[in-house]
Write a structure and sequence with these properties.
Number of helices: 15
Strand content: 15-25%
CATH superfamily of the largest domain: ATPase, nucleotide binding domain
Shape: globular
Order of helices and strands: EEEEEHEEHHEHHHEEEHHHHHEHHHEEH
Bound molecules: adenosine-5'-diphosphate
Strand order of the largest sheet: 5-4-3-2-1-6-8-7
Number of strands: 14
Number of domains: 2
Structural class: alpha/beta
CATH class of the largest domain: Alpha Beta
CATH architecture of the largest domain: 2-Layer Sandwich
Radius of gyration: 21 Å
């Protein structure tokens, strides 16, 4: 990787494509942006440099773009803004790598064909992650592409942590726990020993709390159990997803309420979680600002379930040395962190209220891990800002260099 080389990281969802440009061997972030509102209404594009200056803006009124057209636009935009930089490769965030991929993977035709067979395991995410890969392969075939998987970090979990108590005829179809948010957990596993070397071999539970939310038990930086399972709906309640649910509820919805698959899917993925319980909003900031008791109930259920999940993951680890918060809520909500730590007092977590209140602004200054527990706390509590993009850029560079 030369000083004039760059890596582009793509994070594509059902209605948006986000990108970040990393430059030179130190992978300095220099440009980021997104195309949003794909497929409906007015598609919008914006890009900023890392000083916050807007470097590009455009919208397509009532002529929405699809993934392919959005990538064509982005390739064109990049061509005009790279100022002599050479694109060394593109790294993609991909939700599922199945049982085959436990690390980053060059996305050649064979890999893409395998990943397409996994679509039934993640129908709401995987096709959208892969669409930009296909688009780049068609529009800029010389550019190497690397897939980084949200499941990869969890591939080495013990077999028991991955199993459902279902017959072999079902598990053999791939119905097992995979775990997600792996790139965020891997980033935490990377940052934590840098912040405190004593944590390199620690038993850690990390909580990635954003619109999607999950928790992961890590021993010595390796995943041993996670709250998300077969899909990214299990575990904690989220912005609009219900989290762990008695499967009997699904049978009731179908059998007694006559709901079909699409209706159940919409209810559990888009109408539940913080939004469903509060009836107000999926957004933690809005709920924290609300005086409505239903908003309080939604926050209480969120932190209660996080406390229960923490107990379960600490059991999988046989104890706990550190608790880490990440994601939009985990990094910014002192109130949610305080509630979860209060419920975890029995495990030995003792929060420093002043450090906890300062974590948000301190994060902005330091940009790194920030301890929020007291010096005496038996279990250390930390905030580590999520940076999946940097993790993908590092993986992409390493994969390309090992292949060169
Ligand atoms: P995603 O999973 O989509 O990447 P984020 O990690 O950006 O989501 O997290 C979004 C969540 O973070 C929202 O619920 C938002 O309200 C919450 N959040 C962001 N800033 C704050 C804040 N200052 N206080 C409380 N919650 C916040």
């Amino acid at each position: 990787m030369e000083a004039a080389d760059c890596i582009i990281v793509i994070n594509a969802g059902s209605s948006s494509i986000k990108f970040t440009l990393f430059v030179g061997p130190a992978l300095l972030p220099s440009l980021k942006g997104k195309v949003e509102n794909l497929y409906r209404g007015t598609t919008r594009f914006s890009a900023q440099d890392f000083q916050g200056a807007v470097v590009g803006e455009r919208s397509w009124a009532d002529a929405p773009l699809d993934h392919h057209a959005a990538m064509a636009f982005l390739i064109d935009f990049a061509g005009g803004h790279l100022q002599g930089l050479r694109v060394r490769g593109i790294g993609h965030r991909i939700v599922h790598g199945g049982v085959r991929y436990s690390g980053p993977q060059l996305l050649d035709d064979e890999a893409l064909s395998y990943l397409e067979t996994l679509a039934p395991l993640a129908p709401l995410h995987l096709p959208h992650n892969l669409a930009p890969v296909r688009a780049v392969a068609a529009l800029a075939p010389g550019v190497p592409q690397v897939g980084c998987f949200d499941t990869a970090f969890h591939v080495g979990q013990p077999a028991l942590a991955q199993a459902f108590a279902l017959p072999e005829s079902i598990t053999s179809l791939g119905v097992r726990r995979y775990g997600f948010h792996g790139l965020s957990y891997e980033h935490i596993a990377y940052c934590l020993p840098l912040a405190d070397p004593a944590l390199a071999s620690a038993r850690v539970v990390a909580a990635h709390l954003g619109n999607g939310a999950s928790m992961c038990a890590m021993a010595g930086g390796r995943s041993v159990a996670s709250s998300m399972g077969f899909t990214a709906i299990d575990g904690l309640p989220m912005g609009t997803r219900c989290g762990a649910l008695d499967p009997g509820v699904v049978l009731y919805l179908v059998d007694q309420l006559g709901m079909d698959v699409a209706a159940v899917q919409k209810l559990l993925y888009q109408e539940s979680g913080l939004l469903g319980v509060s009836g107000i909003s999926p957004d933690m900031r809005t709920l924290e600002a609300s005086a409505d008791p239903r908003a309080q109930l939604a926050i209480d259920l969120f932190t209660y379930r996080a406390g229960r999940e923490l107990g379960s993951l600490a059991a999988a680890l046989g104890g706990l040395d550190a608790l880490v918060f990440s994601g939009g809520i985990g990094e910014n909500s002192a109130r949610v962190r305080a509630a979860i730590c209060r419920d975890a007092a029995w495990l030995g977590v003792e929060l420093d209220a002043t450090l906890n209140a300062a974590a948000g602004s301190a994060r902005a200054e330091a940009g790194g891990a920030f301890r929020i527990s007291t010096a005496e706390s038996r279990v250390a509590a930390w905030v580590v800002p999520a940076n999946e993009e940097l993790m993908i850029a590092r993986h992409t560079l390493a994969r390309l260099e090992s292949h060169a």
